[in-house]
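Hey, can you fold this one?
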Amino acid sequence: MRLIPSLRTALFAFTLSIISTASFAQIGISVTFGPPAIPVYEQPVCPGDGYLWTPGYWAWDPDAGDYYWVPGTWVEAPEVGYLWTPPWWGWEGGRFFFHEGWWGPHVGFYGGINYGFGYFGDGFVGGRWDHDHFFYNRSVMNINVVNIRNVYNEHVEIRTENHVSFNGGPGGLEARARPEEERAEHERHIGPAGVQNEHMRAARGNPELRASANHGRPPIAATARPGEFRGGGAVAAREDGGAYRPPENRGGAQPRPESGSRTFNHASELPPMQRAAAPNTGNQKRDQKYQQQQEKLFNKQNQERQQLQQRQEQEHQRMAQQNANEARKQQTEQRHQQQTQQLQQRHDQQRQHLQTRQQPPPKHK
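Sure. Predicted structure:
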């Protein structure tokens, strides 16, 4: 059976939208105990026109078995008209699951969590797009009107000062997604920008930001720009949002059983590469050669990942400059997802192949 072109195009676009939406519904990890409350802190002044606020949140480091604070920061929107839906933790089946944040035309559900600064539990009241320009609501956003003139004042009634950082379960929030938030979930999404992922990785590598060290009151609660953890643009928390009492056994996180392996849409979303442990077979010459091959493969794969990330980001920039239509954007997103998955699979196979080749020869009896 042959489909007429218009119907075939519509079906293709619909399929792509399903793929895009499903990938952002993925939940990366689960933890047996909840994150600390959202700390109290001041918002750094907006660094320039076109920057949108992305509130701070607690993420999980499975290697450390600990939560760590990802400071709130100002980020340039990846596309005109797009808004940020913050990540959030939710209780399900006796565990806490992490829902990733995303960019889209409308703000979706983020667990009813009061992140402050326009994100008070549902929607966003810190500003709005007017054609190709973003206007800031000065009543909730820290804006220097000398540098930024596109502002307005709209009173916002904050319904609660609750600092709980998760939805559901004992002590959690009871918010449920509204119809408009559910509709937003089915729109085209873009994952965190490259600078957001780098910002998160820098936070993960900072021991001061671990909950076990700061007890829910991070010394770097927010930054003026992603990754700038020092200087006048970095703000410390004034106080914690509530008592933090983690269990003595902080056992590691586990993948969500029914969700399978996570799908990454862009090379910038891939987790940091880890060097393999130094071999120790007792044969010094063999171990030294194997370690050199491991290092060579690590550098090669890291370079390939950076090259793919650069190409994908350049394509996003070109589409924004050319004001690409929705069909072209969807095709590009699907291609980026396929490229990223293929790169990840190829790198896994290369590491497995190297490991197999370096197995010591069997001993003959």
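The first strand starts at residue 27 and ends at 31. Let me know if you want another pass with a different chain boundary.
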